[in-house]
Automatic annotation (TrEMBL):
Gene3D superfamilies: CRAL-TRIO lipid binding domain (3.40.525.10), GOLD domain (2.60.120.680). GO terms for cellular component: cytoplasm. Coiled coil: none annotated. SMART domains: SEC14. PROSITE patterns: CRAL_TRIO (PS50191), GOLD (PS50866). This is SEC14 like lipid binding 6. Residues 54-227 form the CRAL-TRIO domain. It comes from the Eukaryota. InterPro entries: CRAL-TRIO_dom, CRAL-TRIO_dom_sf, CRAL/TRIO_N_dom_sf, GOLD_dom, GOLD_dom_sf, SEC14/CRAL-TRIO_domain. It comes from Spermophilus dauricus. It holds the Pfam family CRAL_TRIO. Residues 253-361 form the GOLD domain.
Amino acid sequence: MSGQVGDLSPSQEKSLAQFRVNVQDVLSALSNADDSFLLRWLRAFGTSHPLLVVIQVVKIYGANSICGHDREGGPLWYHIAGGLDVKGLFLSASKQDLLRDKFQNCELLLYQCELQTQKLGKKVEKITAIVDLEGLSLRHLWKPGVEFAPETPGEPVPPADCPRESSVPVSAPSLFAVAFNLIKSYMSKETCRKVVILGDNWKQELSKFISPDQLPVEFGGTLTDPDGNPKCITKINHGGEVPKSYHLCKQVRMQYEHTVTVGRGSSQHVENEILFPGCVLRWQFASDGGDIGFGVFLKTKMGERQRAGEMTEVLPSQRYNAHLVPEDGSLACFKAGVYVLRFDNTYSLVHSKHISYTVKVLLPDQTFMEKVEKF
């Protein structure tokens, strides 16, 4: 164990080990990330702090894993859709938390591609995603989850260096046709073309893409856990039902500075004047009465109200399930001006939404200002 941490109880050691696993993708960027450093976080927040709860629930129950390589050397990405508790995850983490997890997953896959490029002496830039649909049922077709599923790590368009992906749905039940028709309406034609659907002999077909020694026995290969488990649960996360103790709607009780009612078929604008480039705009909000659209815009004319289409869109408007889990976010403002937080309820012709929110402006640090002045 790195660092002097003193005597720990078995439960403390378990919490520390789990925390290190949960944040392993960011530890490489920290020079002082020994056990003492991690323990300060755990002791400051407590293992039940909402931030750590979110990290834990997404990692444990997200049903996503990297294990093995395809025949071209690209990393294998597993998504065990049938074991995913979609609603439980959305009740335990905000949309931004889930998107951040997708960003981290994309970074891990890029790192794996780089390692394979060095190892094989050829450029590796494609991954193969295996989507196991056994156990897919109507509970997986919950509307917020269906809308979120096609989103990629890099909203709304994946970054240029994001690895290219081929998806191979396996063990697809009859409900898959319904699910795919719902999801593909949110997907580009290019993404749809990458999906290869295998039939009843999917295990044999899968071997065309992946060598058996890179596949678990469960998927027609030869890999097992040390105890012989064919599912390779030590390498592949199969998800599972999220315990209700993780549901943030029962844990988070935030105090907001403002409230506003957004009428049916209308929107509300919250203006924030940014005087210096480099300021950071931060917000937190929750809705009552249903989901709410949210986006950030920059005014092009001062002193008068503008419609969304007349302003510069800075953060694309999306619908958030803020009635289930509070949302938070931030934006680095590289231009001075009036930034408008827009709560959008124009899509709802029946229900008004009550929004509680807090907005803060963080001033730029001195280092940033010096860089701006030099430029």
